[in-house]
Amino acid sequence: MDPSLPVHLYTSDEVSEVKPQGSYCSSLKNTWKIERPLGNSELSYFLPSRANGVNDMYLHLGFVAPEHVVRRARVLVVWAILRIRHPLLASKVVMQDYDDIRFVCTPPQSPEDALVDAACNLEYRTSTKDELINSYLNGARTLSNDRLSYLVVSQGGTSLPSPPITPRSTSPFNEREYPSYNHDIMICAAHFLGDGIALHQFANDFFGLLCADKTITDLEAQLKEELSSRWDADVTRTAVLPNALEDNFTISPSKLRSAAEKVDFQLSQQRLVGGHSFRRQTKQPRHTIVPTVSYDPERTKSILKRCKAHGVSVSAAIFAACNIAWAKMCSEKQDLSMMMYSALNLRPHFTVKPANDSYWYLAIGYFNVVLPTFIPRSIDLSSVFWHRARVAKEQSTQAAKNRMIVSRSLLMAAERGQRARLWAKEDDERERGTFVPPPPVPAADTEPRTPSTALIGLSLLGNLDGIYKHGAFPDIKLHTLTTGSRQRSGGMLLFGYTFVGKLWVSLGYDVNGFDKVMVEQFWENMLQTMDELL
């Protein structure tokens, strides 16, 4: 993005001024607004989400806690504090044109305003975990351009009390003893606001504040202090929103370097060979399900030990398990490789110091793992599995440490952004009945193009116990975590992570978008492979 983009003009009663990193401040009757344009990566997620919330993220956490810890009044103040710390959560998106889409943040003018805003985006229900997730994934869209985040707390389901907790002398609560009950929360956020790392870090901070040794009065005082330190008159004049991904890197102005980076990007894309996909069907509306399996702590320790002995991570082993699961059921095109894609954390590669301390921003690139489809009969299956896990590790490491990772990620973001604009424009024209198909492109006299189809996407989150500081919120005992996003028709994504000492694997997919038998066979093969080889 270009920070020199023209300032959006307001009414004559309003004063506007340019801020760094493409953000703008404006004042209308002492009401400040801070804006910045969406970057290419954010656009590639925002534009497809407009119709039905494609890619809207959710994070469900099940936990046991005393009832007073999750009372609405306390949760509301914590939610308000975090929305002040992370302004994109409380922002809106204003779209003027496909090339003019902006985040607009109107900071609350008082603690009362902050609480009102938080209350409008907080809901208490009496639903089970499965009901919460199904409603979010398959019901009406929860989020919108005016609501980029939402928090749901549920105290329903099959909750049973646990033995009373031992009272602490430092407790901010007036009650001596309280039994603990099962609760569920679901944090919802648009994907163009941030990624999985931001989502989990936020949940950790949420629980930490919720269990802090502070009364509600103390938390309200903290809310007032946070609001003053971040949004008072002096601070607002220098305030900016978190950077777009593209603004976190120092870009060389060299035309020669730019040309070389484009050639490298094109060559890297040509090396991606994948000729396999699930058979699709689109007879019924999208309906996402998320079958999930967890392995107990002892079994998880055994899996981690075996992976370490073979010099790979659990993530690399999951790539190999997907490969073996598909190869077992593949009877055609075995000469073509199987390709999988996954996300890459770009935070370690940032070269621009952020002007905002929020961690809610998008910071992911993408990489692919390509493995053979056939299984040699002359080699033990276990040997094949661990060899392919090592290959997956090598490819993942090469992608993360490649010296061209920044240029490749930025060029991919630009390509994804441009595609999103074209498709959004076409979708809008179709809806208005004004779409005119482009003239057919004359067939070129070239060799057949090598297929580059990905079978499945993997979201491998690693050890989430490294993010959740369980000791910081002793009154809350987390026990379940499920995450994902609203999908487009025919969407599929496999998740793998460790949490509360357990390895979890889940497959989120549109049950009406694929050949039912084929997907169920793949999932069965996947779990069987993990049971037998891990």
Rounded mean pLDDT is: 88
Major beta sheet summary: 8 strands, mixed
**Please, how many helices?**
13
Helix content: 25-40%
Structural class: alpha+beta
Mass-distribution shape = globular
Radius of gyration: 25 Å
Please indicate the percent range of residues in DSSP E strands (runs of 2 or more): 15-25%
Please provide the count of β strands: 18
| Unreliable residue stretches | 1-23, 157-176
- Could you give the distance between the termini? 46 Å
Structure description:
This protein is an alpha+beta fold and 534 residues long. The chain has helices at 40-52, 72-85, 111-120, 129-138, 196-210, 216-231, 233-236, 255-270, 297-309, 314-329, 381-401, 405-432, 516-533, and strands at residues 15-18, 24-28, 31-37, 57-66, 92-97, 100-105, 122-125, 149-154, 180-189, 274-275, 288-289, 292-295, 338-345, 364-371, 452-463, 477-485, 492-499, 502-510. The strands form three sheets. Strands 10, 11, 12, 13, 14, 15, 17 and 18 form an eight-stranded mixed beta sheet that branches. A five-stranded antiparallel beta sheet has the order 1-2-3-6-5, with no helix packed on it. It has a five-stranded mixed beta sheet with strand order 7-8-9-4-16, with helices on both faces. The radius of gyration is 25 Å and the shape is globular. The two termini are 46 Å apart.
